[in-house]
Amino acid sequence: MMHSAESQNLKDGEVSTGTTIIAIPFQGGVVVGADSRTSTGSYVAVRTSDKIACLSDHIYACRSGSAADTQALTDYIRYYLQQLKIETGRPARVKSAAHLLQKLVYQNKDNLSAGMIVAGWDPVEGPAIYSIALGGTCLKVPFAFSGSGSLYITGLLDSEFRENMSKEEARALVKKALAHAMARDGSSGGIIRTVAITAEGNDRDYTSELPYGPVSY
Amino acid sequence: MSVMTYNGAAIIAMAGKDCVGIAADRRLGVQLTTIATDFPKIFQMQPKLFVGLAGLGTDVQTLKNLLEFRMNLYKLKEERDMSPKVLSHMLGKILYSKRFGPYFVEPIVAGLDESNKPFLSTMDLIGATSEEKDFVVSGTCTGNMFGMCESLYKPNMEAEELFETLAQALLSSVDRDAVSGWGGIVHIITKEGVLTKELKGRQD
Q1: In this structure, which topology does domain B3-199 adopt according to CATH?
Q2: A147 Cβ under 8 Å from any chain B Cβ
Q3: So what's the ipTM on this one?
Q4: What is the DSSP string of B130-192?
Q5: Where are the domains of chain B?
Q6: For A194-216, what is each residue's pLDDT tens digit?
Q7: In this complex, do A184 and B182 lie within 8 Å of one another by their Cβ atoms?
Q8: Closest partner CB to B182 (pick from A43, A187, A213)
């Protein structure tokens, strides 16, 4: 059922990004979004954390699970992508970043607790979103949502997602879904961070407007 | 998750000049999932006597009903109202009577006694009572609440200032706790009557 700090593979005192993370594509790019709460059990250790990690110019990863594990993983991938860029002379593909991450997670599955979304734009495929689950499954998906809070918005996203949205529509949907998840999930909260990734560049923003809550009678 | 943090709660009570205030969050959750944002944890037992119950939701409701029952019996037998000190002692005895299978609740009693002097007390889940002159806290983020109260509290605050202090202390404390918050409610009890206000808090 619900994953508390005790039932995840977290050590005593280890912080978790029990979280909601989302990636939604639009025409020419992807909007990624995340909440900003890092918790140790029920204590909120950091309430303005940044769970959207930059892997390269046009590739970002959203982190959920153990904060330490996901930070270490993104550091490795950032380093590998830099090397790839030097060796091949071309910017890395989203697919490469996702599969590198998959390799790391799968080969260390017994020791890691990391669920991540890799999203971005590359000149070969355009916008792309990959979801990497706990055991190392890597799936290319039309849109992705993950983390403890994502359970509460599966229906919302299934009904509201449309192909070929504009950047503003995609961003609005990301914020709406995150606000709903943060209202219901105790381990998601704080501010809503979003990054819109396009060929021209990236646009980072955050908001602390949380207009939704469970309806009272 | 421990039984005391299963549903989540945050309650603070403070004494002012001829007045007391008691405030609580409004969340009811099942571990990390929020179920309701209007769950009452403070109950008015008499016109100037409030009890706040923090802990397992089912025991909050059961104990509230049990307390009301015992108070009604007392009023019928004694033909007088129960003073805050008596309620506090009675509650302590009720909790200790379940010493080896306790109610998972840590209550707060706040009210004005017969001479309209402020009364505050808190106890642990097996009835160890502690009467205080300044403030008492209970719930899943007591560390946060103690910090806020120690910094913000001043003795002899009037009703308006007491309300502001209570509200700020509660809202800042629950912002650092994943299982409490989602709004708040504050009652300020003066000799004229009770002022109740709802707090708009972060819905996360």
Answers
A1: Glutamine Phosphoribosylpyrophosphate, subunit 1, domain 1 (3.60.20)
A2: no
A3: 0.72
A4: EEESSEEEEETTHHHHHHHHHHH--SS--HHHHHHHHHHHHHHHHTTBTTS-SSEEEEEEESS
A5: 3-199
A6: 999 999 999 999 999 888 777 66
A7: no
A8: A213
